[in-house]
Specification:
Elements (H helix, E strand, L loop, with lengths): L4 E5 L20 E2 L2 E2 H11 L4 E6 L3 H8 L6 E6 L5 H9 L8 E5 L8 H10 L15 E3 L11
Parallel strand pairs: 1-4, 1-6, 4-5
Antiparallel strand pairs: 2-3, 6-7
Length: about 150
């Protein structure tokens, strides 16, 4: 896969998880002793993404602190001053995006997707296409070369 950015939308309040993780953003909730975002980040890096843009809101300082000091990867943080929703978080992060296309993934869901295949298929058809055959939560692949954003659900 050519150099590609991935936006990780992880700024939600996590209201359904407050009883379990009230001291941190939901992306830093531990799964088998590891923060969930670490599991997602490892998968994205293994798939060939070289730049990860965290779209943060609630707990943005904790997410940034968790990834500070790591070397070998490029982490960028796009923090919201107030909740913007998924689309607003993506729009807020666009100035940080360098690749075309780029991916947007939910920071609270793990979907095993062959991203190189998804982008190759996306490039081969002239219309928006599906979520790569993965039926969990959608992976959004976007293209911005024309100034338009195409959501591929």
């Amino acid at each position: 896969m050519k150099p590609c950015d991935a936006l990780i939308v992880c700024g939600g309040l996590g209201t359904r998880l407050q009883a379990v993780v009230s001291d941190r953003p939901k992306g830093l909730a531990t799964i088998s002793g590891r923060p969930f975002l670490d599991i997602l980040v490892e998968e994205l890096l293994q798939q060939g993404f070289d730049r990860l843009i965290f779209c943060t809101g609630h707990g943005s300082d904790q997410v940034a602190a968790h990834y500070s000091g790591r070397s070998g990867e490029q982490f960028v943080f796009s923090a919201e001053d107030h909740p913007l929703g998924t689309g607003g978080a993506v729009r807020n992060a666009l100035p940080h995006v360098r690749s075309d296309p780029f991916a947007v993934v939910n920071g609270d869901s793990f979907c095993r997707v062959a991203y190189a295949d998804l982008f190759a298929f996306h490039a081969s058809v002239p219309y928006p296409v599906g979520n790569g055959g993965n039926e969990c939560r959608p992976v959004l692949a976007l293209r911005r070369s024309t100034g338009q954003i195409h959501f591929h659900l």
